[in-house]
Specification:
- The chain has one domain (about 1-25, about 35-110, about 135-265): Hypothetical protein af1432.
- It contains 15 helices and no strands.
- About 65% of the residues lie in helices and about 0% in strands.
- The N and C termini lie far apart (about 65 Å).
Amino acid sequence: MKEKTYEKEEAFLSPYAMKSQETRGRLREEEPCEMRTDFQRDRDRIIYSKAFLRLKNKTQVFFAPDGDHYMSRLTHTLDVSQIARSLARCLSLNEDLTEAIALGHDLGHTPFGHVGERVLDSLCPTGFRHSDQSLRVVDVLEKDGRGLNLTYEVRDGILNHSSGRKRCTLEGDAVSLADKIAYINHDIEDAIRAGLLKEDELPPRAVKLFGRDTSSRINTAILDIYEVSAGKPYVRMSEERAEAIEELRGFMFERVYEHANRLIQKSAERMLESLYTYFVGHPEELPVLYSRTAETDTPRAVCDYLSSMSDRYAVNVFKELFVPREGSV
């Protein structure tokens, strides 16, 4: 089966795609799988990781919303994977590599969305970025400290998925664009559902270039990227639509993200700051996985622990430590 995949890649993938046989390999040598390519194994390892399972209870934009149809960090990840795979397919890139990067790109994200990320970044002496933490999750923290031992290309795509970072594969570039397309479009849906935004308030230029509904905006973006990038050694959007999507992104920050963040910012900041201070002062109370790191770098160990938490788990730990129980003195 694996040999057939290799043959198909040689026959059908773009000359600029990353072929499975050309991977730079893993951090640690291991026996190859008889059926799956290395990128297919990486995808499976990510899906079955604990960090991936926790994404279902991590905030995307709205914390503990009323309603079952708001995006979580997990549904965002699946959305990115779907868009990235569509891009890979139409550009004849390696779909398995693209999917693995997409599924792993947010494994290190904090509870409470980007509010949580900003809090840990301000508290940790060496700073905190969710993309760096995602790599740390797959390299160090998963499998009780053994890590997932992923391929170089998947690790590079995870680390560098944010805008402004250089990636070593076009598959990584496809995921970076898909991430931006995904979060802007489904965040518009969530904002309208939450009553923070009306559809007719969207920037007219963006509406004209991308359409009024989510399906139109995503389809238009994918088609635009295809028309610009097919057969080329890059994956990018046309200049006109790239400017329009940045305008839409700025609009969302002004009208939605800042407002939505304010709704949870004070409570999330208070909880994470209190938890950080407590565990820095009591590293012996960290779970074993993190206490080993605390022996040499307590702030990093505490950030590892806090960023691993789901929203619900962080609230429960905070209550356990700081909220008096009924009948206590």
